[in-house]
Amino acid sequence: xxxxxxxxxxxxxxxxxxxxxxxxxxxxxxxxxxxxxxxxxxxxxxxxxxxxxxxxxxxxxxxxxxxxxxxxxxxxxxxxxxxxxxxxxxxxxxxxxxxxxxxxxxxxxxxxxxxxxxxxxxxxxxxxxxxxxxxxxxxxxxxxxxxxxxxxxxxxxxxxxxxxxxxxxxxxxxxxxxxxxxxxxxxxxxxxxxxxxxxxxxxxxxxxxxxxxxxxxxxxxxxxxxxxxxxxxxxxxxxxxxxxxxxxxxxxxxxxxxxxxxxxxxxxxxxxxxxxxxxxxxxxxxxxxxxxxxxxxxxxxxxxxxxxxxxxxxxxxxxxxxxxxxxxxxxxxxxxxxxxxxxxxxxxxxxxxxxxxxxxxxxxxxxxxxxxxxxxxxxxxxxxxxxxxxxxxxxxxxxxxxxxxxxxxxxxxxxxxxxxxxxxxxxxxxxxxxxxxxxxxxxxxxxxxx
Length: 450
Known about the structure:
The chain has helices at residues 30-37, 51-57, 69-83, 127-142, 196-208, 251-261, 271-281, 288-303, 356-368, 437-448; strands spanning 14-18, 46-50, 61-63, 84-91, 94-99, 104-106, 119-121, 147-156, 159-170, 216-220, 316-325, 330-335, 342-343, 345-348, 374-388, 394-405, 421-425. By secondary structure, the chain is an alpha+beta fold. The radius of gyration is 24 Å and the shape is globular.
């Protein structure tokens, strides 16, 4: 956070393009390329690096064996589906979606520009980590302390055109918060927060452009006494939580929420209902008990078109995810405030979820604070349990359970929905776990062949 009494504005700012970097490919050393072309980097400079450059060197490319436009568009749509956690709104072929990073943007950031005609670029897996690694590598090579912002182009609601925004941040405070301070007229600032990292990203694009082949710019002049303010939060502060987002849903989704809130059970099953039937039908039971549970799910879905929504008082489907970190042989568990037990992450479906996997992935990301989770689309299992959930009345959760793999070294952040959140050794689960959790862990290990 900017020190008290000091505005984020600088007396003078320079924006300098770094030319001569050339074409980047998977495995290239981006830090070396920057160091060779910008040996005059100074302490307190901010590097703005287009996400495409990072995606290329990190191998976040889909390479097709053809440059056929139709095949490329088919692959693009498949990539958008794979990168999407939740569809916020759609019209014709345009989709505004939430990615596993928590970003809300068009087409999940899947891009067909500035790559070969047979390639597509995906966003970096963890832009904050990428920014931090680049910053540290430049410190080692040039002995300078710079900040790094990874930028990507986005549209804005109610504004025409795109602008570059920050999706990865290291070494600088992304969001300043002068609330409570007094302006020149004696007014106390009440709601003003400034997305400084976004402003810097947009400034960098003024010299990088979209067609000039310049992936990196230096923004100079923001440091005070050679140092940049850094709260260590990276880009996380820029992502508005769902509880604060007044525009989280598209029109169709908002209408569905309104119907749910007044207790209207839909007569026409939503697409999410159809996905649930398809996913559960595809499960192959290994014994008679599992077959009976599976048939119970399908029977309930057949009887209740509103089975996906929490307003369905007799019971409703939920999605959960068992998060595993294989390198350290750990499983991530949350202490559930109502159940009073350690359980896997998960929760209710929402109208914006188009698949059960969407629901489980959204809940896992929100409750763990880990954006870069990888999911197996085939459920680990099914479970029905009695609970008094947010309805305030006894009901049943028909829970569909998925497997999520966390990246090595991932550090979770507890949400307000949890009393506690911890990694546990998968062969040393704590006391007070839900009765079926050990079997779920064994099923995950078996699927991963661990």
